[in-house]
Design goal:
- 74% of the residues lie in helices and 0% in strands.
Length: 506
């Protein structure tokens, strides 16, 4: 951690805002940001593949596996906007390095965890590190490269990050089968070490000299407490004695979120300016984002468990099964963004969720002894195509709905909505599907719950289509600079977090 704190004292080549893409410094900046952000993206896909093995080794119930996923998402969603503002104030390289080191240390603790409780605590800490490094990745690219090279650098960052997302389930599944689920977390250590070394050598420091406002730390804390209370209420509605502790947690969580919203109306530098939601388009797009990412997160959580528990797949085979989804996103996302620019986003925001819902329904074919080519692949391909259609215009439209001054915070809010959707979906769906305890080890019980969960996920996607039909006005095209945002969208972890230089708040 000492190196991270002294990051400003290093003297990397190049000056912020003047680095050429083809220079050695440019390649170094790209390598550092891709490694660190790719590491965070990996944990959005790899850990799901390892869940059955984590549960068996640590004797965890289904609620423990839920917290393994939601714990990370909880702190990441609540603190990611604050993390971006810390970088603007204290130095983007400094906070990026601190976040990377923090993430690596928490990953090591995850790998060493002797119990599910320790693992959940370490995952919460991992989310804090992710909240520091994730917005810093894109912010460093924006601040470091010269203006003419930024789009090219962002495109390369997005593409290489997508490759990391694609290979994650393969590498994770192989590590789980060949060694242990613990190596899924140990994998982050060498990646983080290289990322920090390259950052200190090549990445120039940058900050926003006009960023002097107060951070909305209390707002971030209230948001975290609110999401935590709701998550606890959904994952563990009662304790071992049958007392409704979850109800109490849920009430406290709702109260914290209400206070959070009231604070956002009054504080000088809010982390989530409520004025943004006066735009019907912005509000609608965030509602569609919530529906789409809730359904997708539920699918990602349940399918890998279904394949291993019910269909008898190995961890590696389950990981490979999801590969077509990411490959389709990588191959077609840029085309989807260009189409949205030409015809306007509304059509794709109607068709995309509907097509994804069809893919969700096709997952109902995944059962005992499911054949990959006939039962699994069609569902994964259709979901991938549906998400390709919807994600690019979704991100571009949320940026187009805000003025230029609020583009960064608008993207950040949309990112937080996507992550909160995933958090609440993973928390709520097992309860709605009647799954608890050790049900993930019982093929018949889990198969029944899986089918209920997939129907709910399909309904969420249909809700996204209905919202788009009812509330979005037809538009001819998107501004080219906003449509290009489709290149920096991750389909699993949510839309990008762009640096917000409009004010000093989180």
């Amino acid at each position: 951690m000492g190196d991270a704190v002294r990051a400003d004292r290093a003297a990397p080549r190049g000056v912020a805002g003047s680095v050429a893409f083809s220079s050695g410094t440019g390649r170094g900046v790209l390598l550092a940001t891709v490694l660190a952000s790719g590491m965070a993206m990996l944990d959005g896909t790899v850990v799901n593949v390892a869940l059955p093995h984590i549960g068996a080794d640590l004797h965890a119930e289904l609620s423990g596996l839920q917290w393994t996923i939601t714990g990370y998402t909880l702190t990441l969603a609540a603190l990611i906007l604050l993390g971006g503002s810390l970088g603007d104030r204290y130095g983007r390289r400094r906070i990026f390095v601190i976040g990377t080191v923090w993430f690596a240390a928490a990953s090591a603790l995850c790998g060493l965890a002797p119990s599910i409780e320790v693992l959940i605590g370490a995952r919460l800490l991992q989310g804090v590190g992710g909240a520091l490094l994730t917005p810093g990745s894109l912010a460093l690219i924006q601040a470091t490269f010269r203006k003419d090279d930024r789009a090219r650098a962002i495109g390369a960052w997005s593409g290489l990050g997508g490759v990391a997302t694609a290979i994650g389930p393969l590498v994770g599944g192989w590590l789980v089968d060949a060694a242990s689920w613990r190596f899924v977390f140990y994998l982050n250590l060498p990646l983080a070490a290289v990322a920090v070394a390259v950052t200190l050598r090549y990445v120039p420091e940058s900050r926003d000299p006009g960023d002097t406002g107060r951070f909305d730390v209390l707002g971030a804390v209230l948001c975290a407490l609110g999401l935590a209370g709701l998550t606890y209420a959904l994952v563990q509605p009662t304790d071992a004695a049958g007392r409704p502790v979850g109800l109490i947690a849920g009430v406290l969580g709702v109260a914290a979120l209400v206070v959070f919203l009231l604070r956002q109306r009054r504080v000088a530098n809010p982390m989530m300016p409520l004025d943004l939601f006066r735009s019907r388009t912005f509000s609608t797009i965030n509602a569609v984002t919530f529906a789409v990412y809730a359904g997708l997160s539920g699918l990602m959580f349940f399918v890998v468990l279904q394949l291993q528990t019910v269909s008898g797949y190995s961890a590696f085979a389950a990981g490979v099964s999801l590969l077509p989804f990411t490959l389709i996103m990588l191959a077609l996302s840029a085309t989807s963004g260009r189409v949205a620019q030409r015809i306007g986003p509304r059509t794709q925001l109607i068709v995309g969720p509907a097509l994804t819902a069809v893919g969700m329904l096709l997952t109902l074919r995944i059962g005992p002894h499911a054949h990959y080519l006939t039962d699994v692949l069609p569902a994964i391909v259709v979901v991938g195509l549906g998400m390709t259609v919807v994600v690019a215009p979704l991100t571009a439209t949320v940026l187009a709905a805000a003025d230029e001054r609020h583009a960064g915070i608008a993207s950040g809010v949309n990112n937080a909505v996507a992550r909160a959707a995933g958090l609440l979906a993973v928390a709520a769906l097992p309860l709605a599907a009647g799954l608890s305890g050790a049900a993930y080890r019982e093929p018949a019980a889990f198969d029944h719950g899986f089918r209920i969960a997939m129907l709910i996920c399909a309904a969420l996607l249909v809700a996204g289509t209905v919202l788009s039909v009812a509330l979005l006005r037809p538009t001819r095209r998107l501004p080219a600079e906003r449509a290009s945002a489709s290149r920096v969208t991750c389909p699993v972890t949510g839309p990008p977090v762009e640096p917000d230089r409009s004010h000093g708040g989180a």
